[in-house]
Amino acid sequence: MAIGYQLENRIFTLNTAHTSYQMKVDDFGFLLHLYYGGRVYGNMDYLLTCYDRGFSGNPSDVGNDRTYSMDVLPQEYPVMGVGDFRNSALIIRNADGSDCCDLRYVGHETKRGKYGLPGLPAVYADLEEAETLEIYLEDKVSGVRVTLLYGVLEDADIITRSVVVENRGERNVTVEKAASACLDFVTGRFDMLSFYGRHTMERNLQREEIRHGVYSIGSRRGTSSHQYNPAVILADRNTTEDAGGCYGMVFVYSGNFLCEAERDQYDQTRVMMGLQSDLFHYPLAQGEKLVVPETIMSYSDQGLGMLSIRFHECIRDHLCRGKFRDAPRPVLLNSWEAAYFSFDGQTILKLAKSTASLGIDMIVMDDGWFGKREDDNSGLGDWQVNEKKLGCTLRELIEKVNDEGVKFGIWIEPEMVSEDSELYRKHPDWALRIPGREPVRGRNQLVLDFSRAEVREYIFGEICRILDQGKIEFVKWDMNRSIVDVFSMENCQGKVTYDYMLGVYDFLEKLIERYPDMLIEGCSGGGGRFDAGMLYYTPQIWCSDNTDALDRLRIQYGTSFFYPALTVGSHVSAVPNHQTGRSVSMHTRGVVAMAGAFGYELDPEKLAEDEKEAVREQIRQYKRQEELIRRGRYYRLSNPFTQACAAWMFVSEKQDRALVSVVMLEIHGNMTVSYVKMKGLKPDVLYRDTKSKNSYYGADLMEAGLPMPVELKEYPAYQIELVMEV
Ligand code: GLA
Fold first, then answer.
1. What is the CA(315)–ligand 1 centre distance, in A?
2. How many angstroms separate the alpha carbon of residue 530 from the centre of ligand 1?
3. C-beta of residue 271 within 8 angstroms of C-beta of residue 216
4. pTM for the full model?
5. Tell me: the pLDDT tens digits for 394-413?
6. Which residues lie with the beta carbon below 6 Å from any ligand 1 atom?
7. Which of 611, 627, 656, 700 is catalytic?
């Protein structure tokens, strides 16, 4: 049993293979958090201490016991208005205007299997793989009931949390803030690791000590954003890649979020993950509910590397869905950097012909094939094929591409509308706009109000009409601006940001139901919506609009802390690179792109013969290694922000094969030698390097490492294939 409850002292224990989580209902019905971390065996309520703390209020239930205060005790789900002055997980505005919600335990239930969330992405598991705990808390005065949901995936070392807020009272209330997970720690000094960035430079790692005060990251952009990823790590100050304790929290949501970390007056730490409170005022009339998106949590006592592996496995096996969860991904060529908007049917066909000759499986026709769309100033919303531009129907084009033995994929951006479009001229009220104000433009486009069913249904119909025109096996779903004008002509304003996301999920769910064999790649100007929520619908996401191999090393390094390699869309592009002007060898570009769902983003006709041959060899190599990259364990071997080389490796489940990739980042006169230490191998077993034919014990490679060659050039890359000797 992963979930236990002791009736006599009202303690809940959630156990996974290597972790324990405990909480307790106290004498007054408050739900206190006791412990989360490595496996423990006893009752952890001995950790609670009570002292008279000045200016920390006491609930009336305790009489004149001044030692009992919500301001000091660790809470499971802290609320505003009961004397806890730290950050609240929940703020309820009552009908009388007060901000108070005094939640007390009223019951609980345990269930087999993992709970699901209506309309929202969530971790799933077989009945025997998971258990669910629901704890019910209620505020007597307002009638607000809060259900805390816990999903325990014992073998996977994963605990998920979500929350349902329900108005069971008679008067309306408004949810002003709602988190799905809070972790209170009575001991410990922590660092917070978060992933900040910008368009074309996403997910840079930042590690900062949590000090007194509040440190927060989040998004108000309507998407999870390039700027901060909705995933953080809380690590002991001395935790490294390979040792020490650390907690991960990943929000399974693609819209506005807020993550707050706080060290309080008694050096206790609180970390919360949930919905962004700005632009959010969610009204609940009698009987209405709000479901707060899920947070996935895990704890590792073996450093950041093991934490990442737990999240990779959870996301790969319990969040990604559909045929392509387990199927090899096609190697594709995307037309964007090959042609941008300047193409016709012949261009696509030519690209298809050259992809066929190189061994690429699929061509994806990117932006520019519909409506009036010669640049990015018009046409969004008009999902009609521009047959004049293509010189044929879409069906004919697809058939010609297929005749070359190449699959066909297409780009769409369903959430958007250009002011210069037929759709906007007909339905200006379908765009998010604040009446009486000029809208803020982004990429000269507006955002459709996906919180409205009729808007979604219309676009869904239009997109399906396109997808039904031929054998379309791949869709790249893009979203190319941040949302500013949060105002819906039909919906209640405080709900728009949340309902918009639900609308996007609803659309995606219908799309995957209707086209179960189609692979959907998420994208938002590259990695602006690279999150666990999208991965429930799109098992891969275009990781960044930056295809420069050197920058990609760092972007992919940051991405690897939570997201498995097979979710990372990663392409070889032309040099000089279009984002940085840098030139890096074809080999190095290939090695970097092979750390993900592999493809190309260039015009093969512009390649020299030897480069074409290199591409063919890359594809053979990728296909040989594909299963290892998709199913193997991923280990970071270096930090490309601070070390002279970037190195990572994949190790097969049986530990009998491994692929080590290394890119040298520096070259100097009289260069020092880099030794790459490997991970995840069996120590006492011999592995053969298939190229050099040298054999090494796993322990030797892990303890001492392998010297990398010193070559007189910039950014050489090496791939070392290791096979266990039999
Ligand atoms: C975004 C995407 C690119 C490309 C363009 C097309 O920027 O990230 O890959 O699809 O849109 O307009």
1. 25
2. 14
3. no
4. 0.98
5. 999 999 999 999 999 999 99
6. 336, 366-367, 376, 411, 478, 480, 523, 525-526, 542, 545
7. 611
